[in-house]
Design brief:
Layout lengths: L1 H25 L13 E2 L6 H18 L10 E11 L6 H15 L2 E4 L11 H13 L11 E14 L2 E14 L5 E13 L3 E2 L2
Parallel strand pairs: 2-3, 2-4
Antiparallel strand pairs: 1-7, 4-5, 5-6
Helix pairs in contact: 2-3
Length: 203
């Protein structure tokens, strides 16, 4: 009888160790692509893949529109405004603005200014102060290159529900405006729709 019990325990123990090992392995943190299909999808927030998708699509639309080539100075000088968040979520819109700025700068078609923003305010106050200090030390009048374009945007959220299924659509809008006359020379919007009953993995 004792031998049977020992035999049963010896058979169960490796199986329990195997299950425990698998469970431990599945809980280990790992790196995944930021724009991959295995990212967590949440209905209650703007995920990293949403940032990437919105930024890539909107920048591609702007660069192929031909609007930037109409500026008298090339590359075109642009001031980027903050993205207005009209959603129910606390969204760090500066992250999206930065992605757009980097992509535009890398295209070679745009030079973005951080010392002048909309309404005369500086996007980077320290950079503006440094430019003023440099001009004063050199006994020169500060040279300010005015932006030819301003880029502004808005993020809108729309929610729907049918039974236990929830759906949210984020609409991201961008407008390119010429400073001299205030006319919008390019506009576009992209929508990202997510549907489900709870957070999941994948698009």
């Amino acid at each position: 009888m004792k031998s049977l019990r020992l035999l049963a325990c010896s058979a169960v123990a490796p199986a329990m160790l195997f299950i425990s090992g698998c469970d431990t392995a599945s809980n280990e943190a790992k790196y995944i692509p930021s724009n991959g299909t295995g990212n967590i999808v949440s209905l209650d927030q703007f995920n990293i893949q949403d940032w990437n998708q919105a930024a890539e699509q909107m920048v591609a639309s702007l660069l192929t529109s031909g609007a930037l080539e109409k500026a008298p100075q090339q590359p075109a000088v642009m001031a980027i405004s903050r993205i207005i968040n009209n959603t129910q979520q606390q969204i760090d819109t500066d992250s999206l603005t930065k992605k757009i700025r980097v992509a535009l700068s890398q295209s070679g078609k745009v030079v973005t200014t951080t010392t002048m923003g909309l309404g005369g305010s500086a996007e980077d106050p320290m950079a503006k102060e440094a430019a003023q200090m440099n001009a004063m030390l050199n006994g020169e009048k500060q040279k300010t290159i005015l932006p030819y374009y301003t880029l502004s945007g808005k993020l809108i959220e729309d929610r729907a529900r049918a039974g236990s299924t929830r759906q949210v659509t984020y609409t991201f809008q961008l407008s390119l405006t010429t400073v001299k006359d205030g006319l919008a020379v390019w506009e576009d919007e992209k929508q990202i729709t997510k549907q489900g009953k709870k957070p999941s993995v994948g698009f």
